[in-house]
Amino acid sequence: MIVDGVHHDRQPRPGQCLRTHLRDLGHFGVKKGCDAGDCGACTVHVDGAPVHSCVYPAVRASDKTITTIEGLADGDELHVVQQRFLDAQGFQCGFCTAGFVMTTAALDERQRADLPRAFKGNLCRCTGYRAIEDAVHGVRHAVEAGVGGNAPAPAGPLVVTGAARYTFDVDVPDLLHLTVLRSPHAHARIVRIDTSAARDVPGVHAVLTHADAPAKRYSTGRHERDQDDPLDTRVLDDVVRFRGQRVAAVVAESEGAAEEACRRIVVEYDVLDAVLDAEEALRPGAPVLHADKGPGDGIARAEANVAGEVHGEIGDVEAALAAADATWTGTFRTQRVQHASLETHGSVAWFDRAGRLVVRSSSQVPFLTRRALCALFDLPLDRVRVLTGRVGGGFGGKQEMLAEDLVALAALTTKRPVKYEYTRSEQFEAATTRHPFTTRVRLGATRDGTLTAIDLRIVSNTGAYGNHGPGVLFHACGESMAVYRCDNKKVEGYAAYTNTVPSGAFRGYGLGQVLFAVESALDELARELGLDPVEFRARNVIRAGDPLVTPAGHEADLTVASYGLDQCLDVVRAARAAPGEPAPAGWLVGEGSAVAMIATTPPNGHYSDATLTLLADGHYDLAVGTAEFGNGSTTVFRQIAADVLGTSTDRVTVRQSDTDVVGHDTGAFGSTGTTVTGNAVLAAAGSLRAVLLAAAARTAGGDARLEADAVVGNGVHVTLKDLWEAADRAGRRLRADGHFGGTPRSVAFNAQWFRVAVDPDTGEIRILRSVHAADAGTVMNPMQCRGQIEGGIAQALGAALFEEVRIDADGAVTNPTFRTYHLPTFADVPRTDVHFVTGVHDPVGPLGAKSMSESPFNPVAPALANAVRDATGVRFTALPLARDVVWRTLTEGTGAR
Question: I want to staple 55 with a disulfide (CB 3.0 to 4.6 A). Which of 37, 604, 718, 736 is the partner?
Fold first, then answer.
């Protein structure tokens, strides 16, 4: 075959697909997202026609011409489609971009006019598709490099040409492959494992069981403080607590050999009683998952299946409810949702020339992962290096150690490089999900619309292991109640263990689940009082300078440091006043809104170090520990450094997410890219600016100022190159460090409004208009921030309308593929009018900025449910609002009214 103009005679392996064959030839721009023809990340052209190479047999490509993303350009000149994706920044993490570019390049005019149909075979989890649509239609955003401008992502040219390197886009010599045997039972004790037949498979180097694993317990969830998460997990355990848990691992010369060896492992199980429902797990007599563990492991009450709990009351809720002029009570349920990042979990481990263990991983937390690996395997920190390439999406799911521990064990055992990459089904069956919640809410208010009581009882299903369970529960109880002024508040919350796939960190970290309940109940209470729901919220929301009051516990370093919620509500009012969009005849039309507040940084410390160095050519090197996975933080870091140093962003190069690069970074989670690492970069840039001015003071005088490539003052022009050379002759480096510890902390606000039409004959919900208001403080990069909001809304709409990880009566995930799990496609996501508040400068964030990666997700589901309630008169209290559920409810007349 001819691939990107080069003739290849290498024969594919029997049964090999074109995707893996092309990657064997070094074409790493061809991605694995599903291996089932569902996501389009592997799209290439075969004789000019686009195909999903993961389901195209490599042998069929014999004597054909193949074009990949890496061969689309004409030498140094980008293909017109690549240039358009670059101009519109039609990507975030970029893992799907090659597939979209290749699909778009094959479209004719008619197909470009019908993108919902044209893109039915391509999925994006990050962008919300609007930036992709802009790219297809040639929309070009003005490039403004400074803070507040649309500085382009530095990796953009690499992303659109397929040259960006993700976790597995490396050629590691002598590589072994790891495959996992997983439990067929929801709860069982392993009595015996016979690995003899597996070891006899040619090419097998090791078969690992619980006998080969460290006895230490840890949490897959990663936080700065290890005690924030229950220590209830082993690398390989002799008790399995969910279907899909690791039982054994095979390390072999090929994936095929490893899979065959897994099939030959014989396991004898003592099957135990299982509990799948969180409420049932809390009842006396329920099967206990972690009976051998106690409070010293960070578990609240292991004997009662309580991983974590929150209890508190301010005032007297029962008295306030009794005295209220109106009350409303309801119970709301949210479901399991998969993160569905297109790059699955996985790692590659090898040993460098010094014999150090090196782990390259798809991780949001490389530094915390290194620390955990060292603790597990009794290794000093300087003997382990953890790094990431570009990460193909995270959304909180990669704030976990789900592959690195096992691949490290395999490498340490075999003394060979080892690769472990989750399949898409493993991602559904064995990686973490969003916590399912059941929330009972009781509200009370006076006749004039003053809230007098908020009472929440929350039960979250943390699954078989408690990673993030207590933290998600605590956060869910926090800002959801603190955003409203009310004298009487009470919360009773439990994170319950069940024999199901573990839950974990997910965008919003529990806040979205509880806000679905609270914001829906507020709408109902407003109706009870005969008040407008928007004005009812406006009367009761927190004001600038108010204390943040929550019965979940006071956080002294968290304040309303800046305030834009009033402007967010003004955006909602303006949207409501605009003329209504036409709906199909016979459809029911309604509107609804919701608000949300979120802390811009997690509690208990979130640390980041940054180092800025002047290079010999007069450019700057910025080293930060945080990862880039579509959050846009790399661009913002360059903007901050360039702004302080008086230069342009293209003169600042960023090295990141490598434990060899910088001192320490807690990780890219909890909306901290801009607010924590950005503050560290700001500090480093300010210090380096002072260093450079001091170095030039003798020549330029005290009134010197920094410009793009020189220090200028008093008629003197000293180039940065000259400064570097002078420092070099003196044996000095012109560099500076910056640090931020994540405190004090501020809050950000969001509001979402929908106008919808509902077809009573089919249950279809059609969004006629979507408007979102965001208080991001100083918006560092409007193009990127808008993309974060659009992507968050799209992901939230998926969770609100159709996404659900389904588990059967035996604890098995029944829809572990993209084809059976409905991700939002281009056709599913409406355009959203995004509005940023103005004039808000946050004194805590760098240069006045706030976070905006998680918060847009949170008000979407309740706003949509409120709009559906307005249209149909029915209060839906469970997600997702699937078409069949809506139709059945409207037809049968069931559901709250």
Answer: 37
